[in-house]
Amino acid sequence: MELPTTTKALVIETYNANLVRALRGMKIIEKPFPEPQTDEVLVKMDASPVNPSDIAFLRGMYNVNKALPAVPGFEGTGIIIKSGDETSENLIGRRVSFFTQDEGDGAWCEYLCLKKGNYIFLRDDLPVEQAACLFINPFTAYAMFDETLKSGTKAIIQTAANGQVGRFIRFFAKENGIKVINLVRKNEHVEAMKSEGESYVLNLNDEDFYENLKILNNDLKATMAIDAVGGEITGKLLNIMPAGSQVILYGGLSGAPVSMIDPLEVIFKNKILRGFNLGDWMKTVSDEEVERISNYLQTLFIQRKIETRIQASFPLENFYEGLRTYISNMSAGKVLFRM
Ligand SMILES: NC(=O)c1ccc[n+]([C@@H]2O[C@H](COP(=O)([O-])OP(=O)(O)OC[C@H]3O[C@@H](n4cnc5c(N)ncnc54)[C@H](OP(=O)(O)O)[C@@H]3O)[C@@H](O)[C@H]2O)c1
């Protein structure tokens, strides 16, 4: 196949905590066509979503900082068109989903080199929109839910319950007979989730929220909480949960330091606050396990038992509109860049 000599990519030139300024420092550039190394494949991109981690990256407030200018985007889907290793030419033509936080280009470009271990093979009947978002949130929800299940708890509490990870957690919980106390921050989401059949939904901003949470959890006795928000709510969750409970913190959406932890609850009731990071978790699981989970998740997507909500798609050139659309209403679903 005749390949071009240059290719388009979206780059960020300066990180800026002020997102509007960060977006102003982004532009489409023409760059030399990438050549895969021996341990890499070259992928022609189809689609990539915008996730909260991408926004944190653009703001320079994530644990991944690349040399600038950098191509953002931590996950996506495409088709392998070239292999850096002659013995792997059988991979050409395979569709893949990937997750990469390596130094080097991210997903918001037309062509991308990927290292072995950063991609999974896709079934033909998985729609491209779902394939684009197969890695970060489904695997994160799966991994964290698996830990809560192994803990033996009969109920969990989760924040950002109407976000995408939260929606997957709700599905896994239902499948396994685990009750979920869902915390959101808008009344419209309380109503929407109750109409979807959720029994326990509380608004973090209600005046009597904390009292109601205490009463509810005295009854349900969740000993695991999954928290994407941080700030005061993390401490409050830890305080109201029974002895031996754990809070898994996996996001910092509030932008605030964790606070309000009652030291007596930690000292005398053996409570634990811990983190979860997909990149680190991936290093702890074998390729066979990743493949098994991938097959399980793909089957759920294909059977339409779960889905990633997509609110809109944009060509890469319209990145400004795409990013603004996403940050103005994250609960409405992911924004995809289509290449
Ligand atoms: N650690 C990891 O490995 C890992 C992996 C995947 C995801 N994550 C993290 O998981 C979190 C959720 O990701 P996602 O893709 O599921 O999000 P999403 O679908 O884009 O939705 C974000 C959700 O969070 C809510 N939210 C935003 N800011 C909030 C705040 N200050 N207080 C309470 N709720 C808030 C939003 O509600 P509104 O509609 O009210 O704004 C929305 O429901 C993010 O922090 C992301 O970085 C971490």
Find the structural class using helix and strand composition.
alpha/beta
CA radius of gyration is: 21 Å
Q: Work out the helicity level.
A: 25-40%
Attached small molecules:
NADP nicotinamide-adenine-dinucleotide phosphate
Treating each run of at least 4 consecutive H or I residues as one helix, how many helices?
12
Report the span from N to C terminus. Answer: 19 Å
Describe this protein's structure.
With 339 residues, the protein is α/β, with parallel strands linked by helices. It has two domains: 6-133 and 308-338, Quinone Oxidoreductase, Chain A, domain 1 (Alpha-Beta Complex); 137-279, NAD(P)-binding Rossmann-like Domain (Rossmann fold), CATH 3.40.50. It is built from twelve helices and 15 strands. It has helices at 19-24, 52-58, 128-132, 136-151, 164-175, 187-195, 209-220, 232-240, 263-269, 278-284, 287-302, 319-328; strands at 6-12, 26-32, 40-49, 75-83, 95-99, 111-115, 119-121, 155-158, 179-184, 201-203, 224-227, 246-249, 272-275, 310-315, 334-338. The strands form three sheets. Strands 3, 4, 5, 6, 7, 14 and 15 form a seven-stranded mixed β-sheet that branches. Strand 12 (246-249), helix 9 and strand 13 (272-275) form a beta-alpha-beta unit. Helix 4 crosses helix 5. The longest helix has 16 residues, at 136-151. The relative contact order is 0.14. The mean pLDDT is 96. NADP nicotinamide-adenine-dinucleotide phosphate binds at residues 51-53, 136-137, 140, 160, 162-165, 185-186, 228-229, 250-251, 253-254, 276-278, 330-331.
